[in-house]
Amino acid sequence: MTRPIPDEVAPQGADELSSSPPKMSPSRKRRGWSALLMAIAILLTLLAVVIGGMRWWLTTLDAREDSVSEFIAAQTNANVGFSSILGRMDYLDPAVMLSGFNLFRPSEMDAAPLLSIASLDARLDVLSSLRHLAPVFDRATATGVVLHLYQREDGSWGWPGPPRPPEALEPQGKISLDEIEQGLALLARQRVRLEDVRLVLHGRNDTLNLNAAEMMLSGQDDRTHLEGQVRVGETLQAGASFVLDVVPGQQGLADYSAQLQMELDAGALASVGRLMGERDSLMLSDADGNATLWARWRKARLEDARLRLDLNRLTLDHDGAQLALKNIHARGQWLRDMGGSDRWQAWLNQLSIGAQQLDDPTAAPDTKNAGEKSEGVKGIATASEDVDEDIGAAIASLPERIALSGDLSDGSLSLVTSGFDLERVARWRHVLALGELGDILDTLSPRGSATGLSLALGGIGHDVPMTMRLALGLENAEVDPWEGAPGVGPLAAWVTAASRDGGSLGGSVTFRGAPGMRFHFPEVFGDSWSLDAADGVVDWQVDDVGSSISGRDLHIQRHGASVAGSFGLQIPTDDADRFQLDLDMRDVDALTIPLSQWLPMKVLDPSLTEWLTRDVAGRVPHGRLHLSQVWDEDSAGQEDESYGPDEALDLELAIEGGRLGYAEGWPALNGLKGELALHNDQLDGSVTAAHSQPMTSLGKAAALSVTQAKVEMRDDVLGITGDITGSVQALFDFLGHAPLEETSELLREWQGSGSLSAALDIRVPLEDAEQSRVAVKGKVGESLPATLAFPESGIAIDSIRGPLNFLHDPAKPEGQQEQLTGTLTGKLFGGAVKAALNIGQSDSLTKGAVTFSGRAPLAPPLEWLGAPAALLGDASQNTQQALDTGSTPRAVGGEFNYQARLMLPDSGARLILSSDLKDVAINLPEPFGKARGIAVPLAVDVGLAEGGGDITLANRARARWRGGNVRDDGQQVPMTGQLWLERWPSQPQWPARTGWDIAWRSPMLSPVQWKPWFGALSNDSTSSQDSAASGESLRALNHLRIATDCLVIQAQCTGPMALEATPRQSSQQQGVGLGATLDGQLASGEMAWQPGAARPLILDLDTLNLDALWPADEGEVAAAPSNFTEAVATGIEPTPYPTALSDLPAGSLRLAHLIWREQQLGPISAEWQSDQKHLTVSPLSVTLGKITAQGSVTWEDAGTNSLTRARLSADGSDVGDLLVRLSQPRGVEAERARAEVKLAWPGAPQDFALSRSSGRLEVKLDNGRFMNLGSASARLLGLVNVDNLLRRLALDFSDVTDKGTAFDKVRGAATLYDGRLENDGPLRIEAPSTTVTLNGQVDLLRGTLDQRMAITVPVSQNLPLAAVLAGAPAVGGALFVADKIFGRFIDKVTQIHYRVTGPWGDPNITLESAE
């Protein structure tokens, strides 16, 4: 029977059954099982032998310490030592116990430790190790493990010298994610406990210990736990702590799950960073804060990782400069695809970093303010939700959110960020070693903000070319120029870039600029442009053969102008760079913005560039520019800058309202209308209209018009030719503002008018503009009469005509490089003149001069010299007629022939004039006058620039001066002058002080002869109303001396007289006055004239001798009034008040001695002031002998007449002496005399007459006597004297005749009117024994008296009875009887009343009564 076949091996068909092998026999099966069992037995035997051998080897391991040491030394090339080593077998697992193990480097000087283990007890799980093909330890314990690592020269770490760690301990390069996952699975299978583990890092300058007091790796069947802490140095705080839990999956550790949490203290780990990076350009210097890492594995794959970073401070040292980072915060997460693929995503959120260097890259972190600034921004750049977003964005240096994704299988990576600040991100270049990229960022200096960044990379870590795609949005972005590419911004742009086939990289920038955008292309345009708007596309590409940048569809709006065009820049790696630019310009304003800022000045010829920059401007309605250039570094700096075969420059400009200059300093052509065309180095142009109009201090100068001019430039020589028209003044302004060394300043002062037509020819070498040649050939006065004036000299030529040429040619010999020539005819000083201009002409004896010859009236040149106009005219007119009319006679007149030369040396202009004045009349007193036909040489030499001059009129006068000119700084040079009349020294010396010295020495001087011309000669400046002009005249005076041997006044010689005067400065700072001294027979003393003072005129005379002016003779004595009646009647018709007195300056008089009729009066003092209505003398003080009168006198206008008022008070003694001094008889004597007088009379003060006066008089006399003058009234007073009564009765009148009548007091007052003097109350005379009163009036016109006189005498026995009886016997008798009866009991006083009438020379005295 056959057994059934299992289903899995059941036949499938007949064919299969026929082809199946034959069935195995039972014996063969038995042999197979036997062989298998034999093999197993052999293996077990071998295993037992191996285990037994291993057990034996391990149990005897302590006996083979030397061989073990040699083996380890051979593997590590180091010395090995240990205390003990033991081995054992735990079942199948071998175990080793080791103590005192040391591994160190052999050295003659020092033994460097490498590894030491205090104790080790390790058991190898053989079965688990075989199963996982990796060592798995079970219950391994190690204590006192110390590993030493040393820093090598390249900065890496390891064991120094020949010893090297085992290969298992050597780094293997990059570690992949799979290796991390496999390593974590292997770590989870270990059962290890580590105690007192240290890692000793030996840096180049320091050593650092990392201590782990305990690290434990333990687990159960369902979980593995790893935990530990690491301390740095001697610190107690853990620098790092970690916890790892691993949970096996359904397949054990093949699909484990794990969780890791690690805490890092940045402050504790900062010393590790300093040690490990001390030789790097970027090194951790200081830190404060912490970081937390959390990771999760699922099915043995890393599925999720998260990061939390919070650092308060992080200081990095970059090449000696510190970067102080602060407030660093970040939250990150990495997620793997849950579907099992290798795709992943990651996020980095809430990223913020603050740093002083990121806020201000130029600030030094170690400065004094670093801490303050850090405090100021501390906490701002945090990720906290409480922080203001705007402030946080201002401090953030990196994007706040970064999203990444990729695929591990194909090496792809995609990055997307939020917006960020370009400048702050770029500032990381200052602290990071970015190499060439950092240099590029330094040059570009990006600014602005990115709205976002998208970057996609492919092929990372694979054997395929890496690909890249980039997109970037920008706002307000700016970059500086780099490698020939322009700098732009701020603008909005969309930037794309992508890798291309063949390994090239390319992209484009589509941009649109906002107002204020700047465009900087220094390789071409130099200065940056400020744009109103701009848009276009810039393409770029980089490959193995080079790079290229090109611009297309470019449109620019700039200050109302539009510019469109394109550019291209090729930068090959093995050839010169090539640049091409095409621009079309419209409505360009090259006046507001210089033309140099519109054109590619950097690529033009330097001399052409300078000319276009400085001298060409205007409005450009349209223009075109084409530029092709090769930028070859090998030819840079070479002198030959001509255009090569592949280079070209074509520039076409239409200019309106422009400006065309040609040489620095020369007036430009303005208002230009024309065209300019530049091809390479050749310029051609045409000017249809232009003008030259330089600016002066007073505004625009006269304009020269230029028409049909041509402009060309060949071999760097600029030429301008054309016709010019305008005025003579326009030519002078043009040349006066040119940079001419010899004539510009001179011509700037000249003035002209009238027509000018000329041809202009300009040649300017641009390499040396100082060699410019300018020629003007023309004619003046053809279409419009012309004038030529020399303001410096005050000379003007009218109605000029003739040729006028100018040449400036630096190629000519020195002194001939500037020439202004011409032969002109015209009028000068009112007469015909010929003038020859010879400025800079070498073949002329009058080089640098203008010569004149002509005939003219004398008055104009004298006015030019400063003579008073009132003296000029026809001197032959009747002088007496002028005097009769009150006008000033003309002093000079007629015409004269002259020759003159206006010298124009470098030191300044000078005029030399000569004439014989033959046809001139001078109508002045001798010796200055002359008649026509008499020749008197006149020589004039005047310095017009430096000041000074000399004028001589033969034998009559000479004047010379120096200074008076104005310096370049505007200050006037003080003038020093001398004027001599009639006589002068042969070799005069200049005075030490500035001002004019005037000296006139004459044998005889009659002021009355000079009176008609005095006002004109003094410029009418002596009145008080012209004090300013007078002050200026006096300020110019230094010293005045007039001396004569005979001063003639009223046709009489009053003797010698000398006057010396000098200016005087008032103490009140009221201006310059005049102080003078008089020394002569007529008067002596001082006088002062101070124009600005309240009383300008002050007279202080020692003596005034009226006898010298009016000497007494017999005729004058006989003519004096013979009696008082004649004196009273004396007088003239009243004098009207002259209005000219209003010009009389106020003043004062102090006269010490007045001599009159050989009598000396004085002193006299007075002050006066006047106006159009009044002349007031107040106060007035006159001393006559021993009596002084004080008061005032006023002379005032009274319509058709005038009126004088006097008010005087007199006080003194010796009235008799006063009468004698007044040439009157000595009629009265008194020890004390006082009088008050108030009088008024018509006319002037000198018109005084008692007959026409009115007023009041009051007299007081004490202790005096009335002298016997032979009058009846005097005798009467003497008769009533009781003491002399007996002598009167005996007809003895000797006391009356010899001594007069004495009195004690005289008191009285009277009113004067209509020629009558009427008492105001009785006049009382008190004598020693008599009192007399008078009351009545005196008729001064008729000389009669009408008075009543009362005499009071005492009754005594010596009463002059005869006199009483003769006058009134009844009264006298009655008084005598009464006296006898009553004696003393009656009044002893008796009054007798008389009537006095008749002529005052012989009055009638009658007795009226007695009491």
UniProtKB/TrEMBL annotation:
Keyword Transmembrane helix listed: yes
Domain PI-PLC Y-box: 1225-1287
Single GO term (MF): phosphatidylinositol-4,5-bisphosphate phospholipase C activity
PROSITE patterns assigned: PIPLC_Y_DOMAIN (PS50008)
Chain positions covered by the region annotation Disordered: 1-27, 358-382
Keywords linked to the UniProt accession: Membrane, Transmembrane, Transmembrane helix
Regions crossing the membrane: 33-58
Gene Ontology annotations of biological process type: intracellular signal transduction; lipid metabolic process
Name of the molecule in the record: PI-PLC Y-box domain-containing protein
Organism listed in the record: Cobetia crustatorum
Lineage: Bacteria, Pseudomonadati, Pseudomonadota, Gammaproteobacteria, Oceanospirillales
